[in-house]
Amino acid sequence: MRKLLFVLLLGLGLASLGCALDKGDSVNCPTCDNVTQLLVGTRCVPLAEVEECGPDGHSHGTACHCFHGQTPTTIGEHGYCLQQGCGGGDQDASEAVTDPDLHACEHLGDVPEQVSAVAAFADFDNAHVEVEHLVEIVLPVNQRGFVHFEGDATGEVAVYVREPGRIDSFLDENEQPLTAENVGGNTDCPADFPEVWHVEIVNDSGQPKPQIIRFKQGVAGPVHLLIVELGDEHE
User: Is the whole model's pTM more than 0.90, yes or no?
Assistant: First the structure.
């Protein structure tokens, strides 16, 4: 009798475990109307509680910049970047990078996003470069150029550059220099990325902070580059 009871309990336990491991039971997100409410994480949040350009983007100047390459959606008089996927979307690909040089080479077949650099540091907010995206930067004629990318947390990024000798320095939002080193070319595709910078970011605020790339005055463009997050323990 005890043996039979044990077998029954074991069977029920395995059945419960199988259900718990079912992918369909992992996350169950509602369908939001995208008019009065938007999906944020795993729930529908009233539109009045969602920041403009959120939940999957942020504002730059007077325009919305959406993550993951989407176009802003206008609801009422404001623009929003709709969440892509349930629970906040897929994990950022940079978090899984184990060989950043090889990872950068894999982006060479991407269609670059074009960004126009601004000629004044004070206007850097209007020239945004997305991390993990191959970009083509148009430089001002006979002037310095500035673009920015977001530094989410303290750590290090690698900036892969196709046209060497164009970057002057890296700055924070207060125009103070960041610690940066030109480490040479990409070891896996040196002809495509002959210049690689490792840049240290200090940000414990819990909010994204702009990191500015300053280009030399009078150099020819465009400049193609890719930014990859290395984390704070990369060697």
Answer: no
